Amino acid sequence: MGEHSMLSKLLRSERGSLVFLAILFVIGVGMPLANLLLPASSALHPSTYTLGLVGKYMTYALLAISIDLIWGYCGILSLGHTAFFALGGYAMGMYLMRQIGSRGVYGDPILPDFMVFLSWEKLPWYWHGFDMFWFAALMVLVVPGALAFVFGWLAFRSRVAGVYFSIISQALTYALLLAFFRNEMGFGGNNGLTDFKEILGYDLQARSTRIGLFVVSAIALGLGYVLCRWIVTSRFGRIIAAIRDSEGRTRFIGYRVEHYKLWLFVISGMLAGVAGALYVPQVGIINPGEFAPLNAIEAVVWVAVGGRGTLYGAVVGAVLVNYAKTYFTVAWPEAWLYALGTLFVVVTLFLPKGIVGILQRFRRSES
Amino acid sequence: MKLPKSLAEFTDRSRVFDVVNPAVRSPKLDTSHGTILYLEDITVSFDGFRALNELTLYIHAGELRCIIGANGAGKTTMMDVITGKTRPDSGTAWFGQSIDLLRLSEPDIAQAGIGRKFQKPTVFEQHTVFENLELAMAGDRRAWKMLFARLTPAQRADIDEVLNVIGLTEHRHRQAGALSHGQKQWLEIGMLLMQKPALLLVDEPVAGMTPQETERTAELLLSLAGRHSVVVVEHDMDFVRSIARTVTVLHEGSVLAEGSIEQVQRDPRVVEVYLGEQA
Ligand SMILES: Nc1ncnc2c1ncn2[C@@H]1O[C@H](COP(=O)(O)OP(=O)(O)OP(=O)(O)O)[C@@H](O)[C@H]1O
Ligand SMILES: [Mg+2]
Fold first, then answer.
1. What does the pLDDT read at residue B37?
2. Is A97 helix (H, G, I), strand (E, B) or coil?
3. Which site in A59, A100, A175, B95 is 20 to 30 Å from B189, CA atoms measured?
4. Contact across the interface for B146 and A236, Cβ inside 8 Å
5. How many helices, marked H, and strands, marked E, lie in chain A?
6. pLDDT for res A159
7. Which of B19, B18, B184, B70 lies closest to B117, judged by CA?
């Protein structure tokens, strides 16, 4: 550690981290307990539906952290991060599909319904292994990680950066969107994967399973946060920040900038994959819509609104914007996109450091 | 339609890709013939304009060399070629007898032992003074290793020593962006020292410094010569006079004259194109 400077920096941002982790702990433990112990008539009783909603927000928050890790700390603006999120989701979805077994509409013990419908004779090779949870869990990391590696390797070694990188990352997720729409791809086409029954033998509709998923999401968010915090406070973290501020200079003191960016991007892609994998069993469906470029942009807006380069800001942004979205899409559906756009413009123009930036300013003026 | 460059590379059938070749570990610096840098017939053109024109220049191991020349003479471009930032159209550049600079990337060149201070001070403004030095510190630079890297007491002592040399001990925890122009220049020199390079390229080190600071910089650079080879580009003739043993005059991208400061100043061509302007 770079002596006091580092330590004080760590503590300064660590205060936010401690607050965040404490809140996460309270929610992660308190909400399930309140759901189980308090009577449904109590004002403090969160419904299982609310639990599911918060669980979903937590997976979004994990996605937001993965974006902040590369954008806030290394200046890499990926407008295609939902590609990794959706791939992680599909890996989980494939496992859940295979768990249905002969309980599908067509009752085929091996083939998922949509394959029977397409009169496929046997399972495509890439569906093998997904009946085992450990294999699917591995793929949740490996598939997004591998895509991030190949894509990042091509982009960073040709020194594609800035807005060009953003555009091709957007193209990447769009290409995947089109590919996954096709029935021949073998991922359920337009409808995606749905009608899941069980996960690890537990009924997905059961309250206990939903609580389990909620708790696992909270743990994943906490661990992901700590992992990212550890990365950005290591010397590696100082180097990626140096790359963000002056890439050329970092090269001239002997760092292979491409490697640093690449590994960071792979870690970020895998985190997004985990987020997607936890998202799918909670919402009960994964379809190509998750690849939509618009979703990727939305996720970037969460981070901008919360404040980038703090990690917890990304969480704040993800939760608040999604809460607003949940509200708007019910109360005034056609206005949501305009509200989102306005929010983004306002934040970029007036709040370059996001909501967290306002809080920091208040605290400074107090002391 | 013209293919983007990176795509076109893949369609070039005569090319052997790096991945196919066995990795060439860059060989050790070899200066047994007494010369650390060989630049021969280097030409760089920007849209037809020749910033360097068949430049040939040798730097001896352990020497302190000053390079002077009017604005636009090609001094910075020369450093760009040596450090891999700009690839020349023709010519050769060798670091010692064994390292071909034109085959290496910027980080490889830095790791081989060439450090550079830029004309415009470039420090990492968001990092503290201490962290700037830590980043520049010589050592393993592999990405995964850096996740677990911790400063050893010896490395800490190294940083403390450099902080002392550059006179920024009191400012160690300040953000580099908050330093004065002169302090930034010093910090950048400190970063150069942390890299422990065999060859230091120093582009206009005293621009924006007070006379006292300039004097200290001169002392520092003089103390480095011998153990390191130092190439200094500078406009300030008093400064050059105070440190130079050998001076090279660049003009329109090639060497116009070379020798001791007195010899160079007496050279009529030099007087005409460079010193004349200043008088
Ligand atoms: N990237 C570039 N594109 C086009 N022209 C360039 C580029 N870099 C340098 N030049 C031109 O090449 C010439 C040499 O520039 P260079 O920066 O090497 O000069 P210099 O000797 O360092 O001058 P100064 O004393 O002003 O720093 C100048 O005429 C400059 O305009
Ligand atoms: Mg110059």
1. 96
2. helix
3. B95
4. yes
5. 14, 4
6. 92
7. B184
Provide the token pair at B260.
């001791």
- pLDDT digits (tens), chain A, 367 positions: 444 444 445 445 578 888 999 999 999 999 999 999 999 888 889 999 999 999 999 999 999 999 999 999 999 999 999 999 999 999 999 999 999 988 988 989 999 999 999 999 999 999 999 999 999 999 999 999 999 999 999 999 999 988 999 999 999 999 999 999 999 999 999 999 999 999 999 999 999 999 999 999 999 999 999 999 999 999 999 999 999 999 999 999 999 999 999 999 999 999 999 999 999 999 999 999 999 999 999 999 999 999 999 999 999 999 999 999 988 888 888 888 888 888 888 988 888 889 888 888 887 777 6
Question: Which residue's CA lies nearest to atom 7 of ligand 1?
Answer: B46
B51 CA to centre of ligand 1 in angstroms: 6
According to DSSP, residue B2 is labeled P
Buried b or exposed e, range A55-83, using 16+ CB within 10 angstroms: bbbbbbbbbbbbbbbbbbbbbbbbbbbbb
B207 to chain A, any CB pair closer than 8 A? The answer is: no
pLDDT of residue A11: 47
> Computed over its alpha carbons, how large is the radius of gyration of chain B?
20
Atom number of ligand 1 nearest to Cα B70? 25
- Answer whether B141 sits within 8 Å of A256, measured CB to CB: yes
Inform me whether the C-beta atom of residue B126 falls under 8 Å from chain A C-beta atoms: yes
Instruction: Single out the residue of B114, B155, B108 nearest to residue B31, CA to CA.
Output: B114
Could you tell me the two tokens for A290?
Answer: 């998750």
Is A234–B172 a contact, with Cβ atoms under 8 angstroms apart?
no
Name the stretches of chain B with pLDDT < 50: 1, 279
Domain range holding A173? Answer: 2-366
Domains of chain B: 16-278 (3.40.50.300)
- String of DSSP letters for B82-128: HTTSS--SEEEEEETTTEEGGGS-HHHHHHHTEEEE-SS----TTSB
Order of strands across the sheet that contains B229-233: B114-117, B199-203, B229-233, B64-68, B246-251, B254-259
Tell me which of B77, B233, B234, B235 to substitute to probe ligand 1's pocket, judged by most ligand atoms within 8 Å of the beta carbon. Answer: B77
Residues of chain A contacting B115 with CB distance shorter than 8 Å: 253
B164-197 as b/e: b if 16+ CB within 10 A: ebbebeebbbebbeebeebbbbbbbbbbbbbbeb
> What confidence score (pLDDT) does residue B93 get?
96
A3·B172 Cβ contact <8 A: yes
Cα separation, A84 vs A61, whole angstroms: 14
| Ligand 1 site residues, Cβ closer than 6 angstroms | B 46, 51, 69, 71-77, 119
CA of B77 to the centre of ligand 2 (A): 7
What is the tally of structural domains in chain A? 1
Q: Please tell me the residue having the least CA distance from ligand 1 atom 3.
A: B46
Q: At what angle do helices A257-283 and A235-245 cross, to 10 degrees?
A: 100
pLDDT of residue A339: 87
The 8-class DSSP code of residue B26 comes to: P
Nearest CA to ligand 1 atom 19: B72
